[in-house]
TrEMBL record:
It is found in: Cell outer membrane. This is Transporter. GO terms for molecular function: efflux transmembrane transporter activity; porin activity. GO terms for cellular component: cell outer membrane; efflux pump complex.
Length: 385
């Protein structure tokens, strides 16, 4: 509001005391004293210098500061969204862990049935059967632990979503094990991705807006070095009007207009201090931007490496799983024929379970790495408007 013309309305009434007049003044016919004074006045002041030196800079500083705050809010929302997606994928990993553990139990039970049949025909010792029974018990224990962990994770997801505690069961909704997008390594080189992050990340854009706002604030502060120029006008409707001579007891309207220059020399010192402080704030934000760029470089590099490793991990885990499944099939046939021990069969079961867990972790890890890379590059910026 300081940049708007200032309009002041004033109304007054004054009762004056009677004073003794010099008898020599009577010859001039001044008449009787006027003891009641009424006045209505309106004054206008237009800050011309502010329009030149302050208003555009102040508006620009405020606009860019507002934009910076909005970008900061959006950046925080994107970070929360990325963290939520990662939490969801971790929950999916726990769901997959339960499935793998359940498959391990079914697998161990099937081998136990084969062992009991082989034992009945005298091709297997009682110790081999007991070893497989222990394997079933161990698999069931691991399944129970995985289910307990998933129960806690379910509650965490429900709390995060604001869902009812006893609502409908949570479902995955995505095919984790067959997705191909997350398994692809980045096509662009690392420097290209880092430049993409510098141009898209809202944190960088927010600091750019803040820097522009602070630079405009510096210009606004330096306006204190110059004199202040105001256009002024005044209208008076008074009885008696001081502009009328000789005074008469009736209302008269008069006006005045002009310009007023004001230069408070003490303001030069305070302006210098304020300008130095504003420059320091600008330099501080510039350093924050440099630090943020360095941090983004490392964040992109880490996410880039994680996605590349995840793609290789998926390929390796799938080859390992295929080999482990085939090895277990062969060991099972040998076991049923009495040419392999229960130890061999338990080891092959453990290798298959380990390979399945590695495949699951690789797939979930790829989704997590892809989410982190998209956030690091600012590709999720279109999610929040």
């Amino acid at each position: 509001m300081n940049f708007f013309p200032r309009i002041t309305l004033t109304g007054s009434y004054m009762r004056l005391s009677e004073v003794e007049q010099d008898a020599r003044l009577a010859q001039f016919g001044l008449g009787a004293q006027i003891l009641n004074q009424y006045s209505l006045s309106a004054s206008l002041a237009v800050p011309i210098s502010d329009y030149v030196l302050r208003i555009s800079q102040g508006y620009a500083a405020a606009s860019h500061s507002e934009t910076a705050k909005k970008l900061e809010v959006q950046a925080e929302a994107l970070k929360i969204a990325a963290d939520a997606k990662i939490s969801f994928f971790n929950w999916v990993g726990l769901k997959g862990l339960v499935v793998v553990r359940d498959e391990a139990v079914s697998q161990a039970k099937a081998h136990l049935v084969d062992a009991q049949r082989t034992f009945e025909v005298g091709l297997l010792s009682r110790a081999d059967v007991l070893r497989l029974e222990a394997q079933v018990a161990n698999a069931e224990q691991l399944l129970s632990e995985a289910q307990a962990t998933l129960l806690v994770a379910d509650e965490q997801i429900r709390i995060a979503l604001g869902a009812a505690a006893q609502g409908r069961p949570l479902t995955v909704g995505i095919d984790v094990m067959t997705g191909s997008v997350a398994a692809q390594p980045p096509a662009q080189p690392l420097p290209t991705l880092q430049e993409e992050a510098f141009s898209k990340r809202l944190e960088i854009r927010a600091l750019d807006e803040t820097l522009y706002s602070l630079k405009k604030s510096e210009q606004l502060t330096r306006a204190g070095y110059f004199p202040r120029l105001d256009a002024v006008a005044d209208v008076t409707y008074a009885n008696p009007n001081q502009r009328i001579f000789p005074a008469r007891e009736e209302f008269d309207l008069t006006w005045a207009a002009g310009a007023r220059a004001t230069w408070v020399l003490n303001d030069i010192a305070t302006t210098a201090a304020a300008s130095a402080e504003a420059s320091a704030r600008t330099a501080q934000v510039a350093e924050q931007k440099a630090l943020l760029r360095d941090g983004l470089r490392m964040e992109v590099a880490q996410a880039y490496t994680d996605v590349s490793k995840a793609a290789r991990s998926i390929e390796t885990a799938e080859r390992q799983l295929a080999a482990a499944v085939e090895a277990m099939r062969v060991k099972s046939e040998l076991f049923r024929a009495g040419r392999a021990t229960s130890t061999d069969l338990v080891d092959s079961e453990r290798e298959v379970t380990t390979a399945r867990l590695l495949q699951l972790n690789a797939r979930v890890g790829a989704l997590v790495a892809k989410t982190r890379l998209d956030h690091a590059l600012g590709r999720d910026a279109n999610v929040v408007k």
